[in-house]
UniProtKB/TrEMBL annotation:
PANTHER family given in the database record: UPF0102 PROTEIN YRAN (PTHR34039)
Entry's family note: Belongs to the UPF0102 family.
Highest classification ranks of the organism: Bacteria, Bacillati, Actinomycetota, Actinomycetes, Micrococcales
GO molecular function: nucleic acid binding
Protein known as: UPF0102 protein HGG74_12265
SUPFAM superfamilies: Restriction endonuclease-like
Species name: Arthrobacter mobilis
InterPro entries: Restrct_endonuc-II-like, tRNA_endonuc-like_dom_sf, UPF0102_YraN-like
Domain of life: Bacteria
Length: 118
């Protein structure tokens, strides 16, 4: 596995723990549909929350949230609807979030969440 992929998986692990501690129940990870992959799918009450996770060691090349473009959000919406259909669920309670993880390996990682990005 490439170092970038290892960092991404590490960030997703940290993000999943963060979301669980914040009251979400993670029900799926790295789900792949026809249009792409969802990092984390969780339930928050009756709401299905899809979280796109971006991990960086440093903010030297921009904050992780900057990597989530409007085109990426649109694609996440499509993939999220595919996940809902595959699981026989309704899109009425769907939310797309973003989670940024900054972890240089020298201290506690910084984890931020933006709710309802799309």
């Amino acid at each position: 596995m490439r170092p970038k992929d290892i960092l991404g998986r590490h960030g997703e692990e940290l993000a999943a723990g963060f979301l669980e501690r914040s009251g979400q129940h993670v029900v799926d990870r790295n789900w792949r549909g026809p249009a792409g992959e969802l990092d984390i799918v969780a339930l928050e009450g009756a709401t299905v929350v899809v979280s796109e996770v971006k991990t960086r060691r440093t903010p030297d090349y921009g904050h992780p949230f900057e990597a989530i473009t409007p085109a990426k959000v649109h694609r996440l919406q499509i993939i999220a609807r595919q996940w809902l259909r595959a699981h026989g669920m309704d899109a009425a309670g769907l939310r797309i979030d973003a989670v940024a993880v900054l972890d240089d390996g020298t201290g506690d990682p910084v984890i931020e969440q933006l709710k309802a990005i799309g």
